[in-house]
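Notes, p. 3: input format for complexes.
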Amino acid sequence: MTYIVNEICIKCKTMDCVEVCPVDCFYEGDNMLVIHPDECIDCGVCVPECPVDAIKPDTEPDLEKWLELNAKYASIWPNITIKRDPPADSDDYIGVEGKFEKYFSAEPGEGD
Ligand code: SF4
Ligand code: F3S
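Output follows (112 residues plus iron/sulfur cluster):
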């Protein structure tokens, strides 16, 4: 198994998760992060760090799309291990439905 980041992260992107990961397996897109499924050691340490509960074990139902998306973009986007400030409007997107369709960006983030 692995943990993955799902659409709840999109535009919230608080980045509280990155510094606790013992194997540095978060990768940064323009408006969300993903986890590299082959690098994640399933420790679960990042899960309680995310204030919006965007990190899930891939054993939960209906996460195949997100497993594929995490795997795809973790191989494209830059690695991130140091937290930066979230977007200024991060809080405005907490609990917003349909964020993938409305806001997902395939563009890479800055990385470290
Ligand atoms: Fe990193 Fe552990 Fe979270 Fe996987 S579960 S992304 S290894 S902190
Ligand atoms: Fe996203 Fe949560 Fe990390 S909002 S950036 S998965 S702390």
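The two ends are 27 Å apart (CA to CA).
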